[in-house]
Amino acid sequence: MIRTRFAPSPTGPLHLGHAFSAITAHDVARARGGEFLLRIEDIDQSRARPEWEAQIYDDLAWLGLTWDGQVLRQSERAADYAATVAQLWDAGLLYSCKCTRRDITQAASAPQEGVAPHIGPDGLVYPGTCQSQRTWIDDAALRMRISEALNGKHYIDFQEVDADGVTLGNNITSSEYITEYIGDFIISRRNREAAYHLAVVVDDAAQGITHVVRGEDLKSATPIHVLLQQLLDYPTPAYIHHPLIRDAAGKRLAKRDDAKAISKFRAEGVSPSDIRAMIGL
Predict the structure, then answer these.
(1) Domain region containing 95
(2) By C-alpha distance, which of 81, 14, 72, 12 is closest to 40?
C-alpha cells in the first residue's frame, strides 16, 4: 500500500507552497487507494506555537484533505530519537563537536589555495575540525563521521518517481560528492535535540512511508537520508521532489510571506478549487 505524508512545522502560517506539497501527497495516495498521514514537526519547541498547529489542521480540512490515523508529533518522540543516536554512537559513527557557526565560517574563510569552500544542504560543509574527538561530550553536538558511514560504498542511490507514479529512474550520488559537498552532518544538537536529518528518517520509518513527497529544494539532502536508512536498516521510500511555488520575483515562498498564506486567501473568499488552480493542480 502506498503511504505518503505531509509534515509541516507549526512555526507560522501555511502558504501556497505548503498547499502544493500537501495536496500532491494527498492525491498521490488517494489515487492509488493508499494512506495519507500527517506529522507535526514541532521538535523546535522554542518556535512552535499551538495556535499555528491548530491553524494547520483547519487549513488542511478547508482544502478538503483528510488524513489517516493519529497525527504524529515530533515533540513526543524524544526517546525514539535518543535511542537511535545511541545506536549510531555505539557503532562508532558519530563524534562530539563543539564548533560554533562562527568557527566553521572562519575555517571556511581560509580554504586551501585555489579551492573555494563548498556549500551543502546545511550550509558551509563542515571542515572536520573535531573529527579526532572520540569522547561523548554532554554539551556538544554530534556529527556523522561520513567516511566511516560510507564504509567503502561507491554511491548512494534512490528511486525518483513523479506524481503519476511513473518511475524517473535511480538518482545516483557518488561517495566522493557526498564526502566533499555534504560532509560530516549534524545528527544531534548541543541540547540533545534531534537534527532534522535524523528525525525525518526515524519518523518516516515509524510511519511506514513508502513515497516521500516534498519540494525539490530538499533533493540535495536525500542522499543523507538514504544513507541513514541504510545504516539503520530501514527501507528506503521512493521520492517525489515536486517543483517549488515561487513569488513574482522567482523567490521560494517562506512562512514570512503572509501575503501568500492560505488563511489570508480564505478570508478573501477564495475557494479550495481556486487554490488548486493557482498552484497548477
Answers:
(1) 77-207+216-235
(2) 72
In a domain, 31, yes or no: yes
Q: Quick one: which of 64, 66, 12 has its CA closest to 264?
A: 12
Question: What does the pLDDT read at residue 245?
Answer: 82
Residues 37 and 95 in one domain: no
Number of separate domains in the chain: 2
Residue-wise pLDDT tens digits, 194-242: 999 999 999 999 999 999 999 999 999 999 999 999 999 999 999 999 9
Q: In this structure, what C-alpha cell is assigned to residue 62?
A: 478547508
Burial 3-18 (b: 16+ CB within 10 A, else e): bbbbbbbbebbbbbbb
Q: Is the dihedral of CA 154, 155, 156, 159 positive or negative?
A: negative
114 and 191 within one domain? yes
